[in-house]
């Protein structure tokens, strides 16, 4: 897929200048932006929103001959910021018709050449700083953020002046990279959702969020969302340096790779030579007529699933703080169940000794054994599970849980103290996360859903 940068078929306007941070926006484009509506030529860029979070802009160039595409279609997809453009001001996120310059001067000519080669050109960009919420308190600010994005994209697309589209995800939902919602919306828009409609081998995505470490010439990448998006789609990935400057591809190994995690878990449970049993915990059993069992583990570690699959069939009644909201209400509910002679499972994170001590005292008050189920899933895996659950409400989220904020995981890590028998537990049963589900669910779980540079 790498090609040497072609010469543009016409001069790039304006020509390069010596000042490094000079805007590449033409005077004509700026003048057109500020011209009264009655004097403007018909707008080539049309906008719409999808599900109140996705912004879609489609540019139709009147001076460029239309393509005669045949299936399968080749798609050239690009990130926007730090891939096609960079700011030419001190403000990293400035959005005006003149606050940007090309990441490299070869980009306009390169994209025009791709169009002439028959590629469908699209831009897929996360734009979390743009809000589409209907909130009276922030209406003016939100309206301005959207208007500024549209104004900047308009000048960018006018300089390129080839048919292309932008998809900008503003929310924390299925459209946000590395999730594939923007790509799937694009396929629907261009009627390419049928099997075999896209030439996957020839298609590619170019972006700067590749999980690269800091160098003397480059700051550390903020995430792996662009690399992971390409992997989720199943197309080739290039950094801007690789695609536009023909730089050598850098080696990269994912910090957390879902498919590899499943494979490693399966292989660790297979008997090796001379081994008669798999290396998994013995099944959890109820040891006494009445018990208090508490969980300890990160959000997304599998606590609720363990309750429904294991504890509920054994007769434990569930107490969950996500439902009851406060610890006091949870203790009150647990007392009611214990008074009725029932066994109780406390389905909370119970991160530290102080929190678990409340339940140890309750068990002693009722003279029942207390046991701890320790969920060992690390934060990266737990965040992945939470995102899979929240983004697939129809197939993998029976309790309709919403996406948790990052602070929920950070708070658990900060408070976490590994449980010990010295706290008063009869035993501690460890549960390592293991994916269970259909092949279709496994396919969904194996995608990248959360992209971060490090754990």
TrEMBL record:
Family matches, as PANTHER family: BIFUNCTIONAL POLYNUCLEOTIDE PHOSPHATASE/KINASE (PTHR12083), BIFUNCTIONAL POLYNUCLEOTIDE PHOSPHATASE_KINASE (PTHR12083:SF9)
SUPFAM superfamilies registered for this protein in UniProt: HAD-like (SSF56784), P-loop containing nucleoside triphosphate hydrolases (SSF52540)
Gene3D superfamilies for the chain: HAD superfamily/HAD-like, P-loop containing nucleotide triphosphate hydrolases
Highest taxon listed in the record's lineage: Eukaryota
Name of the protein in its database record: Polynucleotide kinase 3'-phosphatase
Pfam family, one: PNK3P
Biological process (GO), any one: DNA repair
One MF annotation (Gene Ontology) recorded for this entry: polynucleotide 3'-phosphatase activity
Signal peptide region: none
Region annotation (Disordered) ranges: 1-25
């Amino acid at each position: 897929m790498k090609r040497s940068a072609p010469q543009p078929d016409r001069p790039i306007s304006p020509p390069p200048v010596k000042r490094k941070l000079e805007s590449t926006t033409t005077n004509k484009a700026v003048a057109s932006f500020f011209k009264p509506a009655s004097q403007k030529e018909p707008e080539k860029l049309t906008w719409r929103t999808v599900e109140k979070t996705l912004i879609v802009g489609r540019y139709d160039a009147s001076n460029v001959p239309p393509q005669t595409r045949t299936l399968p279609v080749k798609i050239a997809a690009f990130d926007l910021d730090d891939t096609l453009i960079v700011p030419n001001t001190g403000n990293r996120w400035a959005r005006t018709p003149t606050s940007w310059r090309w990441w490299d001067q070869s980009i306009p000519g390169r994209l025009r050449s791709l169009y002439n080669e028959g590629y469908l050109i699209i831009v897929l960009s996360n734009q979390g700083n743009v809000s589409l919420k209907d909130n009276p308190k922030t209406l003016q600010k939100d309206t301005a953020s959207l208007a500024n994005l549209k104004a900047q994209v308009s000048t960018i697309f006018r300089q390129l002046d080839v048919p292309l589209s932008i998809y900008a995800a503003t929310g924390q939902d299925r459209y946000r990279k590395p999730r594939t919602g923007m790509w799937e919306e694009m396929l629907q828009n261009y009627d390419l959702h049928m099997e075999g409609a896209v030439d996957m081998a020839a298609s590619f995505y170019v972006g700067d969020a590749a999980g690269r470490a800091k160098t003397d010439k480059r700051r550390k990448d903020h995430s792996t969302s662009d690399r992971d998006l390409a992997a989720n789609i199943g197309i080739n990935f290039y950094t801007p340096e690789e695609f536009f400057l023909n730089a050598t591809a850098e080696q990269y190994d994912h910090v957390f790779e879902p498919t590899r995690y499943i494979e490693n878990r399966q292989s660790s449970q297979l008997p090796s030579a001379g081994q008669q049993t798999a290396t998994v915990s013995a099944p959890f059993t109820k040891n006494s007529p009445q018990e208090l069992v508490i969980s300890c583990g990160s959000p997304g570690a599998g606590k609720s699933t363990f309750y429904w699959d294991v504890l509920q069939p054994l007769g434990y009644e569930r107490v969950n703080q996500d439902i009851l909201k406060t610890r006091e209400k949870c203790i009150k509910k647990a007392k009611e169940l214990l008074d009725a002679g029932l066994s109780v499972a406390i389905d909370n994170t119970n991160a530290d000794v102080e929190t678990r001590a409340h339940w140890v005292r309750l068990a002693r008050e009722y003279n029942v054994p207390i046991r701890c189920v320790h969920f060992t899933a690390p934060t990266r895996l737990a965040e992945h599970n939470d995102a899979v659950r929240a983004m697939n409400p129809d197939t993998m989220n029976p309790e309709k849980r919403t996406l948790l904020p990052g602070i929920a995981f950070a708070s658990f890590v900060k408070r976490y103290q590994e449980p010990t028998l010295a706290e008063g537990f009869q035993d501690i049963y460890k549960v390592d996360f293991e994916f269970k589900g259909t092949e279709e669910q496994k396919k969904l779980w194996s995608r990248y859903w959360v992209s971060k540079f490090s754990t």
